[in-house]
Structures are given as C-alpha cells and as structure tokens.
Amino acid sequence: MILPPATLGMLGGGQLGRFFVLAAHELGYKVWVLDPDTNSPAGKAADRHLCAAYEDFAALDQLAQNCAAITTEFENVPADTLDYLAKFLPVRPSADAVGICQNRVAEKMFLRNNDIPHAAFIAVNKADDLRNAPDELFPGILKVARFGYDGKGQARVTSREEALHALQGFHNEPCVLEQMLTLDYEISVVLARDEHGNTKSFAPSENAHAKGILDVSISPSRFTAETAQQLAERIAEQLGYIGTLAVEFFVSRGELYVNEMAPRPHNSGHYTVDACATSQYEQQVRALTGLPLGDARAHSAAVMVNLLGDIWYDPTQPGPDSHGHYREPDWGKLLTYPNLKLHLYGKHHARPGRKMGHFTVIDADPAKAHEVAMAARAAIG
Ligand code: ADP
Ligand code: MG
User: Fold this and answer.
1) Can you tell me the mean pLDDT for 1-22?
2) What is the torsional sign of CA 366, 19, 14, 93?
C-alpha cells in the first residue's frame, strides 16, 4: 500500500485530472501532473506541474524519480510513455488496457472476442473494405480509430458512396464502420477495480448529448443497474483493469450494447463527487495506491449539467467585447440553490463547446433533482 503523504503522478492536466488531484489532496497525498499546457486545470491544482510533452523522457524520468505510482486522465497518452514509466513504478491502468480503449478497432475487436454485445462493425483500412462491407452496416457511422471525442472524427453515412466520401474526408485514416442503432437512450457505468480484482460499480447514469457533447447526466438511470454493471465488470476483468473505468452503453429496443470504454474517470461520473459515499476520483486514488476501494453507493439521486464555453457569450452580442473578453456568467443565479453543487475548472479561455465546469443537483427525489437542475440551467442561459 502506498500511504499519504506519498506523491502520485498524473498524466494529463484536464478537469478529470484536477478532480483526481483534489481527491488525492483530501487523503493527504501529493500529486505531480504532466501536461504540455501551461494553464492546465490539474496542473494549477497540483503540487508540481511538469509542463512538457508526454514523450519528453527527461520529464518522464522526473516523474519516475519523484512519484510512487502513475495514473492517467487521458486515453491518448502514448502507449510508449506508459510502458516506459512501468519499468520504474506501478502504472495503473496498464499500457495494454489503455491501448485497447484508445483505438476503436482494438476496442471493438476486444468486445467481439469477449462476447460483449455491441453494434455490428467492420475495421476499415482502405476503400475496398467499404466496397465489401455487408449491407446491414448501412445506415452506419464511420469513426476514425484514434483521437475521436465528443462526436469529432465521425460521419453518419446512409450509403457506400457516402462512406467512401467520408473516408476520403478522414484522409484514409484507419476507421471503423458501425451499424447505426435506433437509440432508446444512452447510459454509462463507472466502476473501480483494485489490484486483487475486487470491483465496485457506481449506479449507471443516463446521458443526453447536445452537438455530440455530453449535456445532462441523470443518475439513477431508467435501465436495470445490475445488467449494465455486470457487463462493465466483465469488461474490467477481461482487461485486467486496475483503476477507474467508464463504459458507455446504447439502449436500443430495450437491449444493451456497449459503445465504448474510457480508461479513466468520466464526465458522466462527475455526479459521484456530490452524490456518492466515495467519488470516482477517490476510487482512482484508492486503486492506484492499493487501498481498499470505498463504498460506491449513492446517497442521493443526481442530475449533472455540463457548462460549456457557449454561456460565456452574450447572446445579444455577436462576439467578444472590444477587449476580446466574454462576459462571466452570473454564478449567483446558480449558487442560490441549496442542493446545487457548482464546479468550475479554472480554464482561462471560454470557447464554444469547451467544457468549463458543471453543476450537480442532488435530492432524495429524482424528479425534484431534475426539476431544479432544469430551472437552474434555464437561469444561467
Ligand atoms: P465519442 O468518442 O465522440 O464519444 P461515440 O462513439 O461515443 O464517440 O459516439 C458519439 C455519439 O454518437 C454517441 O454518444 C451516440 O449518441 C452516437 N452514436 C455513436 N455510435 C452510434 C451507433 N452505432 N448508433 C447510434 N448512435 C451512435
Ligand atoms: Mg462516447
């Protein structure tokens, strides 16, 4: 067991890393963050911010020398970085697990090989793969294998011709072509798994997206928790996963299909900070340090609303003011609700679509939490 005040290393400096830093600090650990952005939200909160590239071996050596264990908040950390660090200290999750989750081809093959329900797909390496694709994949979605997020690197295609055209648009990068499912709704399960194989799943959340970005997340979800949690736990076990893992699902005609995995805490698990005995971030600390996992039960229903940079814009103004600034939203409108927990990430510049913060409304009554969350969202714009 790695005990406080040991220093933990975090690869990635976004808001997920920032919440990890806060959870680790509460327990008395120190955290060093590696991120190339001088203004990274986690870097600002960390004991030390190594402002360097993920492939900067001098920076990796510094992490290895000063930290007791390493984790990540970002699935696109190069596998070589994780492999290199793993020569010196525990790296959780492993490079192998992250490697599967960061590549859609590897991810879908993993689901297929482990008999986990998923939408029909093929790997696309060249135009001929699309010409030979089975008819059942149309209409479908062409997705680039690497670096897609928030709906980026995806094209909805109704025909082979459209798919070929979209592939060109992606510069013939490796892709997957996936069958388009009719969605009832989408859910996710966040879980933590420790080095002994014990798992604790949080209650699933039901996720609504706007323009490809998570908008509102409601927990508990309508879907039977156990069924989704069992599938997520099977995935974690097959990955030999240690840490916090998120699994996104489609619910289509009442059936569950795994969409994708994230080898890190997840936006839809923010609610665990305010509504659960242990947050997804504390679980990440616990799994990393070899502490027993905490109680994952929710004490309240929760509705989380993402706050994107768009609300920094004055809707009556076409752009920034003459100083190039956007107005700060009137947080007083949110902070008047006693059951609303506001989280701002301290990002320097608001941009449309950029995740700047979120709030979570908790209540014993799910309907009441939803009502307050929607009223609060309307109030802030
Ligand atoms: P991202 O990495 O951008 O989150 P996803 O694969 O999760 O990529 O796709 C983004 C969204 O697009 C999903 O949350 C879902 O709403 C929709 N989508 C993706 N794949 C499918 C599919 N096969 N059928 C129906 N909708 C899909
Ligand atoms: Mg997704």
Assistant:
1) 98
2) negative
Check the annotation: does 152 bind a ligand: yes
Answer yes or no: do 211 and 175 share one domain: no
Give the residue, out of 158, 250, 256, 355, with the most ligand 1 atoms within 8 A of its beta carbon, to mutate for a pocket test. 250
| Per-residue pLDDT tens digits for 336-360 | 999 999 999 999 888 889 999 999 9
Q: Note the ligand closest to the C-alpha atom of 179.
A: 1
Give the 3-state secondary structure of residue 128: helix
Give the span between the Cα atoms of 233 and 334, in whole angstroms.
36
Q: What residues have CB less than 8 Å from 298, skipping those under 6 apart?
A: 202, 203, 219, 220, 272, 275, 276
Tell me, in angstroms, the distance from the centre of ligand 1 to residue 272's CA: 23
Averaged confidence pLDDT in the chain: 96
Question: Which of these three, 91, 111, 140, is where a domain ends?
Answer: 91
> Is 280 annotated as a binding-site member?
no
| CATH code, domain with 324 | 3.30.470.20
Work out how many domains the chain is built from and give that number.
3
Is 0.90 exceeded by the ipTM? yes
With respect to residue 151, please indicate whether it lies within any of the assigned structural domains.
yes
List pLDDT tens digits, range 160-195. Answer: 999 999 999 999 999 999 999 999 999 999 999 999
Q: Answer whether residue 323 shows pLDDT above 60.
A: no
CATH number where 127 lies:
3.30.1490.20
Nearest CA owner, ligand 1 atom 21? 180
Query: What's the pLDDT tens digit per position in 32-73?
Result: 999 999 999 999 999 999 999 999 999 999 999 999 999 999
Estimate to the nearest angstrom the gap between the alpha carbon of 48 and the chain centroid. 24
Residues with CB under 6 A from ligand 1: 119, 141, 143, 148-151, 178-181, 183, 186, 209, 212, 248, 259-260
Asked whether the beta carbons of 69 and 84 are under 8 A apart, the reply is: no
* Residue 153 assigned as binding residue: yes
Task: For residue 241, give its domain range.
Answer: 185-380
